[in-house]
């Protein structure tokens, strides 16, 4: 048995050991976090274009030696979905495989037989099971398309004819489903030709890549008979496609909408009223045309009488 003093000494030693263990864990976490912050992750290329059926390679380089990294694909909601872990001894997983160069600290993700639904933004990062707050690279965007010619359209603000316009009218030109040669978008507002302000682009849920080009024109110019043209040009073969919008067309369309609104609704009301009268006429019988049918008796309930020839013999008759 331990004496009371020995018992207290034993408890003190155990507490001392536990405090050293806790301090050690904290130091390890701080070391891991510090090491993580010192690792730089660089992805290349920034953008990859492929046609369906080809193979896409995404590269990820680290500033320090690591044995594995994780690949993510960004969802439409903005969340990152785990798709693959690259390491020296990793095996293929579906269409995903990896190529690792440990000496160069380089990890490559290969996506075979790419399709439109593979289009998206990909990130490489450090494993969450090793680092407290894993960081990711600068992203690589994969665009898969086989479109021979892009789609081009212009969007204008929708306002009523008598509404007051803002000082400037914004116009948006949407260029979608295109390949790299179709890059330049030019605006012709009748007064000048400019490139406008172009965004970085985005990929929708169907894997279609689109970019916006924005330009503005003064309200005074928009109120006049103005024609605005958006043109996309292909640098390799010199082809171009255009979309045009005119203020006269917009006013005429607005006038047509007003005509439909003021003349179409009464016509619809009259048609509904006619249908209602027809239904009421069918349900109400006309006087003098009602015919009362006699009570019909089924054939099996009609009494049947059978007649037969009877031979009568008179006993008083002479023989």
Automatic annotation (TrEMBL):
Which Pfam families does this one have? C1-set (PF07654), V-set (PF07686)
Keyword Cell division part of the UniProt annotation: no
Q: Which residues form the Ig-like domain?
A: 39-124, 150-246
User: Per the UniProt record, which residue ranges are transmembrane?
Assistant: 259-281
Keyword list (alphabetical) reads: Disulfide bond, Glycoprotein, Membrane, Transmembrane, Transmembrane helix
Q: Which PANTHER family does this UniProt record tie to the protein?
A: SIGNAL-REGULATORY PROTEIN BETA (PTHR19971)
Q: What is this protein called?
A: Ig-like domain-containing protein
Q: What is the lineage of its organism?
A: Eukaryota, Metazoa, Chordata, Craniata, Vertebrata
């Amino acid at each position: 048995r331990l004496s009371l003093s020995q018992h207290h000494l034993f408890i003190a030693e155990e507490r001392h050991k536990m405090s050293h263990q806790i301090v050690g864990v904290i130091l390890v976490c701080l070391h891991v976090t510090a090491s993580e912050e010192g690792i730089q992750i660089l992805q290349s290329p920034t953008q990859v274009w492929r046609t369906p059926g080809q193979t896409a390679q995404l590269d990820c380089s680290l500033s320090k030696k690591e044995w594995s990294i994780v690949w993510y694909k960004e969802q439409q909601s903005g969340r990152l979905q785990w798709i693959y872990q690259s390491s020296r001894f990793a095996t293929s997983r579906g269409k995903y495989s990896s190529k690792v160069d440990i000496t160069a600290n380089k990890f490559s993700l290969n996506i075979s037989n790419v399709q439109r639904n593979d289009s998206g933004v990909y990130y490489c990062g450090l494993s969450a099971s090793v680092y407290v707050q894993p960081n990711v690279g600068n992203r690589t965007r994969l665009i898969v398309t086989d479109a021979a010619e892009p789609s081009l359209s212009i969007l204008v603000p929708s306002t009523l004819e008598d509404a007051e316009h803002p000082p400037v009218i914004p116009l948006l030109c949407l260029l979608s489903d295109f390949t790299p040669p179709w890059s330049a978008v030019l605006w012709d507002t009748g007064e000048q030709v400019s490139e406008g302000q172009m965004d970085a682009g985005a990929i929708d849920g169907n894997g279609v890549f689109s970019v916006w080009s924005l330009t503005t024109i003064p309200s005074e110019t928009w109120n006049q008979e103005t024609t605005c043209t958006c043109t996309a040009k292909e640098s390799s073969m010199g082809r171009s496609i255009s979309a045009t919008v005119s203020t006269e067309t917009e006013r005429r369309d607005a006038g047509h909408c007003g005509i439909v609104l003021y003349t179409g609704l009464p016509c619809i009301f009259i048609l509904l009223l006619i249908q209602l009268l027809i239904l009421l006429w069918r349900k109400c019988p006309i006087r003098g045309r009602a015919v009362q049918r006699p009570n019909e008796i089924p054939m099996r309930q009609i009494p049947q009488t059978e007649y037969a020839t009877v031979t009568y013999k008179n006993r008083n008759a002479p023989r």
